[in-house]
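Input/output pair, single chain:
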Amino acid sequence: MKIVQVLATSGGVGGLEQHTFNLVNELSQQHEVHIIAHPCYADKFNAHVCFHAVDFSRSRWNIFLLCQLKSIINKIHPDIVHAQAGKAAELISKIRAWLKPVKFVTTVHGTKKNKSIYTFADAVIAVSQALTQGIPSEKAYVVYNGVYTQPNLSDEQKQQLKSEIYIQHSLLNSSKKIVMCIGRLEPVKNISLLLHAMSNIDAHLFIVGDGSLRSDLEQQTSAQKMQDRVAFLGFRTDARDLIQIADVVVLSSDREGFPLVMVEALQANKTMASTRVNGVIEWLPEPYLANIGQAKELQQAIENALIVQAQEDFSPLFMKAKQELTVTAMAQQTLNIYEHLLK
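Output:
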């Protein structure tokens, strides 16, 4: 099968980009896979993948961008064109009439009120059940995000990682439990809410990630007199190792599609607390969920996740995540959709 994937973002690596890297690399083990993406992502794909560099920082109305896309796809003449997220879907919809016969697939990664841009496709994949709303049922499929299994750190490695953070951030009491948040420090992640929720919890809070709100969040930490309990770790390439030293992983977002952080946490046997965002509400038990924007409820969910009982509640989810939320499962389900369309 000859497959073209289109990733139309132009910098930064979030859940959408990581999903695409994983899917493309996995599919390339069995099929001829081409990826059309910004040159900044060239090193994210293995040697089996045919990479086509396109400057997607240009507008989705840019005639030169549209002509370049049309030319590349027609030259490849694939069986499947798969557009990842809204901008890629819109670009492909604009040039569809000028493409050689091909089946079109799009993936919805985030919450969108208007999903009409996706409905030109022959199949629409949503990364959570909630995201299928507004998609014709005969075209809608759900394929959860998957990740590659992370090797386990030894107890010695975990202790060394903790010690480095305690020393670097002048955290004194190393016996406290660790609550961890991983994500961009941007409004949609609502880390401010998490700081409020943590104000009365006797635990360390490790915030992994960077963004435009970092200074504001550090000021909030000082105003709440939490400097001795909160560590801003910034962007880390070892975020998946860091999850292994957490006691609880928290999401405080206002919106999500299907967060990879949840997948990584469950695969690492970590209990969680989260706001009621898409994807998460399909997996986490009720005591560990809080209404969006409600600090007191999030505080209670975190406290629930910190107690011993939580491990028992989450144990079936840990097993299920290892079986179902993998790159192999995600790729196979996607291939099944392609094969169905080609029949």
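The CA atoms of residues 107 and 125 lie 5 Å apart. The two ends are 12 Å apart (CA to CA).
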